[in-house]
């Protein structure tokens, strides 16, 4: 397996900044990119496994939608030791899926081959069926979907969840008050600078993500959870303009 590389994708001036894509170039630097770009990432991923261990029901599945390199899937595996655990991990990037398989294989070797059943699929999460689930994970995936696809996906997830099942959704968020949005946006830029990104890198990556990553407010997420039919929802973690939420199906 190739070693992870430092993210320098936007370090040099580009004649034209293309729309961001989870291609092989991004996959090679993804662990470094997300560590230096997403405040609180390790906390959210680590706690995802803890949450899953509380809400997982034996005989049901866990879905990791937009699994990237399998960080959330592995977090779940580290918390749930039951041999019957079944995880279905999806991503629509072939490069991500290929590298994720390498990561999972390496993890299995390091743990003497002992690993719960993980089904890795290259698929569109909006099209893939959700069935017999007690935990569904959407960590930094929802924000890349067209807005019109978001409520239908939540309704499909709710339909596939067992009573008492949970959705974990982690996102970049926007704030309804302009001053709060500006303050936390600027602090996020400072976070990136503190992690070694140059002004050129920050500017070019922002251009690449424009109209691709569409962040929403807590109110919008809450209203959509309600519209989908979840019994309750709450924010359990926030670090600057990144947050993680729980939405729970009625028992």
Shape by Cα distribution: globular
CATH superfamily placement = Vaccinia Virus protein VP39
CATH architecture: 3-Layer(aba) Sandwich
Q: Assign the CATH class.
A: Alpha Beta
| Beta strand count | 8
Number of helices: 8
Indicate the proportion of strand residues: 15-25%
| Class from secondary-structure proportions | alpha/beta
Distance between the termini: 44 Å
Radius of gyration: 18 Å
Could you describe the largest sheet, including whether it forms a barrel? 8 strands, mixed
Mean pLDDT: 94
SSE string: HHEHEHEEHEHHEHEE
CATH fold annotation: Rossmann fold
Q: Assign a percent range to the helix content.
A: 40-55%
**Uncertain runs with pLDDT below 50, 5 residues or more?**
none
Domain count, please report it: 1
Can you characterise this structure?
Helix 3 links the parallel strand 1 and strand 2 (86-91). The chain has helices at residues 24-37, 41-55, 71-79, 94-110, 150-160, 178-194, 199-209, 218-228; strands at residues 61-65, 86-91, 117-122, 133-139, 161-174, 216-217, 232-239, 242-248. Strands 1, 2, 3, 4, 5, 6, 7 and 8 form an eight-stranded mixed β-sheet that branches. It has a single domain, classed as Rossmann fold (3-Layer(aba) Sandwich). By secondary structure, the protein is α/β, with parallel strands linked by helices. Keywords: S-adenosyl-L-methionine, Transferase.
């Amino acid at each position: 397996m190739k070693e992870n590389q430092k993210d320098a994708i936007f370090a040099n001036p580009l004649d034209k900044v293309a729309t961001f894509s989870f291609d092989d170039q991004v996959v090679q630097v993804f662990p470094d990119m997300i560590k230096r770009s997403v405040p609180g990432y390790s906390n959210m991923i680590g706690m995802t496994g803890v949450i899953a261990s509380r809400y997982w029901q034996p005989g049901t599945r866990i879905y990791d939608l937009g699994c990237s390199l399998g960080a959330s899937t592995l977090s779940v595996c580290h918390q749930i030791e039951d041999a019957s655990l079944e995880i279905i991990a999806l991503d629509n990037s072939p490069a991500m899926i290929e590298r994720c398989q390498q990561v999972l294989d390496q993890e299995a070797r390091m743990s003497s081959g002992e690993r719960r059943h993980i089904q890795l699929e290259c698929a569109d999460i909006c099209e893939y069926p959700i069935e017999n689930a007690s935990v569904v994970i959407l960590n930094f995936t929802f924000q890349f979907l067209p807005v019109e696809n978001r409520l239908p996906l939540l309704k499909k997830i709710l339909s596939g969840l067992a009573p008492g099942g949970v959705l974990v959704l982690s996102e970049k968020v926007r704030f309804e008050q302009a001053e709060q949005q500006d303050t936390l946006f600027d602090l996020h830029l400072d976070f990136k600078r503190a992690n070694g990104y140059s002004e050129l890198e920050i500017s070019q990556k922002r251009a690449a993500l424009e109209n691709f990553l569409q962040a929403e407010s807590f109110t919008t997420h809450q209203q959509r959870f309600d519209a989908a039919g979840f019994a309750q929802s709450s924010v359990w973690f926030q670090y600057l303009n990144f947050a993680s939420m729980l939405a729970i199906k009625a028992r």
